[in-house]
Model the fold of this input.
Amino acid sequence: MMNLLETDNRTEANASDSDGASASPGGTCSLSTGSAVGAAPPGRWLHRAAVVLVAMVWPLIWIGGQVTTYAAGMAVPDWPGTYGYNLFLYPYQTWLFGPFDLFIEHGHRLLAALVGMVAIVTVALAWLVEPRRWVRWLTVLLLVAVIGQGLLGGVRVILAARTLAMLHGCTAEIFFALCVTLMAVTSRWWWQQDSAKSPRAPTNGPGERVPGRGVIVAASALVVAAYLQVVLGAQLRHVQPTASPGGFTHLVATHLVTAVVVLGLALGIAWRLWTLVRSRTETSGGCGVLALLKPAWLVVSLVWLQIGLGLATWVSRYGVPTFAQVGPRSSSYLVKSQAFVESLIITGHVATGALVLVTATFLLLRMLRFRHTRLSLLAPTASGT
Done:
């Protein structure tokens, strides 16, 4: 039983991952051209549909951010139509060559409708080819979420409520994370983890380290902190007219502190996974952890980018802070309302925040899957000692 309690630092057989990495006897990782042990993953078209959803939702969030940046949420005052027209029959000349706020608001609605259609196709594919019941219901949850998101956006227009606009932006990030979850659990890498439990799976002896509970907890905290940043950012973008200066200052300070927490968690997780990968130079495994290290470093890179965009967003909206004014050009910087370049910076800050959240979610899912399959291999050995 003591061996079972020490499984965080124990090793197990190395299976191929989606990146094609496999362990060689010399302790290095090489690219494998062979097929994975076991049957090919079912539902490849379901995974492709999930990838399409992810690829569509991020631009949808970006355009939604532009709608908020330009205060264009009421550019089309009716819903579900557009100035009395059916959503898909609105004259394209007026949409493409009319006012810019009309262009982005109507475009946002069109892209959202397309996402809903892809979600319907995803549900159909899941119930046709997906053997796992919980994944099939996950696609249903996705469909319900996108319908609810559309209704929330419509009610926001009808009631012209700023609070509903803020809620609409926050729930969009949850829907994005659900889409990434579906993409992760239908991927080839996810299915290949089962092949590691096959008796025919190639083994390399001791060498593959398993992420401990501490790093799993840290990854979970990273997801929570990243979403907290989304909520705080939404409150800053949709400041209520009744908000006090002191309340706004407190909100900004909380946003900054949480950013430091997110960066610290991301760096800590990446460092811990890096130490696990480096252990392969002393043993014969560790390649499987590479599938975790890559998204971990991606999170770190996105967080640094997000911090830079956050500073640029502050300058774009409020000017250069007094303590940072080092020359006459910085002190005389002119804040331009709805300037195009500044709008890209501000909206990019929103969209990058969404990428931080979903990449952290993707990393957590992979870590949980990797740890579960490896520990399930170790459990019989530990219980027999």
